[in-house]
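Course assignment 3, question 2. Fill in each field.
Student: A.L.
Task: Predict the tertiary structure for the chain below.
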Amino acid sequence: MCKWSKWGDTRIDPCMRNAIFVLNKRLGVKTIMCCCGHKKYPMTIIIQDKLGAYELFSGFCFPRKQKRFYKRDKQGFYYIPELN
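Answer field:
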């Protein structure tokens, strides 16, 4: 399992750094949150554009404005309830 680590002014799973860097810096996509899934849940990246917030891999559009997309399960792993 990846461990949380500081990366600049954000926290990000180390295994997600390159993907987020490419999305943000190279492609200009605004990422809000991400999680590698820690071998328990699917990898997720939430992106934001002028139309709203979306999960990149599933294409799921979050129907409401929210700041908390992930919930923590009993074992401490984060997941997106709408995708599970």
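Instructor remarks: The mean pLDDT is 85. Helices lie at 17-26.
Grade: pending
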